[in-house]
Amino acid sequence: MHQTFDAALGINLLHANQAGADHNREHFDEWGITCLNIMSSPGAGKTVLLERTLEKLSHEVKIAVIEGDMTTELDAERLRQYDVPVIAINTGRSCHLDSKMVAGGIHRLAHEYNPSDFDLVFVENVGNLVCPAEFEVGEHAKVALLSIAEGEDKPLKYPVMFQEADCLLITKMDLAPYLEIDLNRIISNVRQMNPTVTIIPVSAKTGEGLDEWFSWVSSQLNHPATTHHYSRLVSN
C-alpha cells in the first residue's frame, strides 16, 4: 500500500528531526548535562513550576533553561529573575520546538558559557498538548503537565503526550476542592496510556508535591530515565 504524499512528508520530517535530536543529545552527553523537556497545554503551569524549581535547586545544581514561546520573551524574563542562563527561542507560527531550534539554543549556550559547567538544562516547550510530544529535541526525559482543571478525559483525547511522558505532574491541585473532577479517574486514564509513568500531583501555590518533584529531578542527574523514545523512528 502506497503512502500519501502528506504522510510520507510527515515521516521524513520526523526522521530528520530525530537525527537532529540525537545530535543534540550527543552534545548534552559530552558535557555531562541532563536535559528535561517540559510540555503541556497553555496555562497548565510550566513556567511557575520552573520558577519554584529554580528557586529550590539553582543554588545546588547548575541549571540553564531553553525557553520556547511563539512570539514573546515574557516567560523567559520571569525565569531570568532567578539568575540562571535563559535562552529564548521564538517559534513564530510553529506550535512546538524542534531539534533544529533547540540546536540553535545549545550553540548560544555554548558560545556564551562553558557548557561543561552545567548539570541540568530545562527545555520549556511551547504550550500545546499535541505537537511537542511528536518532536524530540535531544532530551533525556519528557515531563508532561496536566492541570486538574483541564478535565479527566485529556489523557484519552490526546494520548501521545501521555504515552511519551516519563513523568507527569497533575498541577493546580489547590483548585481540586472547587472542581467536580475525580483525581483517581485522571490517574486511571493516564495509566491506560502509560502504565509506568511517574505521576506527581502538585500545587505551585501551596507547595503540595513539590518536594517529590524536586527529588525526581535530582534523581535524573545521576540516573536519567534513558527514555525509550530515542531513535524510535529511525529504528522502525
Structural notes for this entry:
The protein is an alpha/beta fold and 236 residues long. The protein has a single domain, classed as P-loop containing nucleotide triphosphate hydrolases (Rossmann fold), CATH 3.40.50. It has 9 helices and 7 strands; from the N terminus they run αβαβαβαββααβαβαα. The protein has helices at residues 5-31, 46-57, 74-80, 99-112, 154-157, 159-164, 183-193, 210-222, 232-235, and strands at residues 34-39, 63-69, 86-90, 120-124, 141-147, 167-171, 198-201. It has a 7-stranded parallel sheet, sandwiched between helices. Helix 1 (5-31) runs parallel beside helix 4. GO terms for molecular function: GTP binding; GTPase activity; nickel cation binding; zinc ion binding.
